[in-house]
Specification:
alpha/beta; 8-stranded parallel beta sheet; 8 strands
């Protein structure tokens, strides 16, 4: 199972040549077919509905009824927390995509690609910046603390799944240092032989 964030590290990855179910976030549907697409933003849900007929689209539980059955609710969180970042409404598309991949993997392995977390500059790090429903390229970088905590909780709640994070020149957050986490380089991604 592959799960794709929209960090710029995945620019050179040929997603069509990866074999297996795919979970993606937001505008990735513009370029690739995903089996599951998570859109935590209502504008992205509408865009995805208008352009997709086969992908399972997920959004926040509060918003799914607005789309008259064409969109599924994201799953409930696998834990209870007391902090703001533990509230389901504070979860974004990326953490929910990792959760969905964890729930639906059949081989007990989830490969994360494009979950950069940090920008290499102080500007936004997203494949779709400067496109509809996204910030401009000169927008400030997103603070990744919520993503780190939320995705880390998925890793913790699914200890029997092996998570492989593909990144180059990247430091694993201390909150993600679990025995079921591995970091590998982007050049080691295995493509279909066809």
């Amino acid at each position: 199972m592959y799960v794709f964030g929209n960090g710029e590290s995945r620019t050179s990855i040929d997603i069509d040549k990866l074999d297996g179910p795919k979970v993606g976030c937001n505008a990735i549907h513009r370029d690739y077919h995903m089996d599951h697409l998570v859109c935590a933003d209502r504008r992205m849900v509408k865009e995805a509905i208008d352009t997709n007929t086969q992908t399972k689209i997920y959004t926040r539980t509060e918003w799914a009824p607005m789309f008259k059955g064409t969109v599924r609710s994201v799953p409930p969180l696998p834990y209870k927390g007391t902090e703001r970042w533990d509230e389901p409404f504070q979860w974004g598309s990326g953490p929910y995509a990792v959760l969905i991949a964890s729930m639906y993997t059949t081989d007990k392995c989830v490969n994360l690609i494009g979950f950069d977390l940090w920008s290499r500059s102080n500007k936004i790090n997203n494949m779709y910046k400067d496109t509809p429903n996204y910030q401009n390229a000169d927008y400030r970088a997103v603070d990744p603390r919520y993503w780190i905590h939320q995705i880390g909780m998925v890793f913790k709640c699914f200890p029997n799944i092996q998570f492989i994070i593909y990144q180059d020149d990247w430091e694993l957050p201390s909150a993600w240092k679990y025995p079921n986490i591995t970091v590998d380089t982007l050049s080691n991604i295995s493509y279909n032989s066809n």
